């Protein structure tokens, strides 16, 4: 990777995406942030409007972005319901944002990425299953298979692809009424995951010492998996 590293990050207006953008800016990266809500994170940051719920629109957006050393897909949301109350629209919407948008952006950004670049997908500890979250879990589980496949394809170019899967994280998404059916539970360590901790691990995976790590899933959950 070059000395003036450039990252493209989705979901940069809040939560984990914003925390990762802040971490990379502090590490000397320039960042292009993609989201529906405009945000400003200071010097080195450029915001572009992007509707991640419409993956077919993202090729045009990506065409105007300078080549990137890293792509981070952090945009996401959660809708919860149990069997008998599942909404097909909720599944389609989450799949579009979590999986479709990642696929569309990587398809445009990665071919222009320098060798030795990085791709990081934000998954979820829930991808292995959680009552009331089957549709959300399915979309996050899809990132695992997609990311591992890309890791195999891109290994000859030295481009790493990993998934970072947080547990219940202290972000605005926890207050979203769409997930009210399954309120968050405190993990074993007694506190929600700090988005800055997620960002610090992301910074490592995206940095120079992440060069030997690819095709992996890292769970950071405060002990919720215990």
Roughly how much helix do the residues carry, as a percent range? 25-40%
What is the average per-residue confidence, as pLDDT, rounded to a whole number? 93
> Structural class, from helix and strand content?
alpha/beta
Task: Trace the largest sheet across and list its strands.
Answer: 3-2-1-4-5-6-7
CA-based shape: globular
Distance between the termini: 37 Å
Order of helices and strands: EHEEHEHEHEHE
DSSP, total strands: 7
Which percent range describes the beta-strand content? 15-25%
In DSSP terms (H or I, runs of 4 or more residues), the helix count works out at: 5
Q: What does the radius of gyration come to?
A: 16 Å
Q: Largest sheet, if any?
A: 7 strands, parallel
Unreliable spans: none
Account of the protein in words:
- It is a single chain.
- The chain has 5 helices and 7 strands; from the N terminus they run βαββαβαβαβαβ.
- The protein has 226 residues and is an alpha/beta fold.
- α1 crosses α5 and α3 packs parallel to α4.
- The chain is globular and about 50 Å long.
Secondary structure: elements and pairs:
Layout: E1 6-10, H1 15-26, E2 30-35, E3 45-49, H2 58-63, E4 70-73, H3 88-109, E5 118-122, H4 134-154, E6 160-166, H5 195-206, E7 217-220
Parallel strand pairs: 1-2, 1-4, 2-3, 4-5, 5-6, 6-7
Helix pairs in contact: 1-5, 3-4
Structural key phrases:
226 residues; alpha/beta; 5 helices; globular
Summarize, please.
By secondary structure, this protein is an alpha/beta fold.
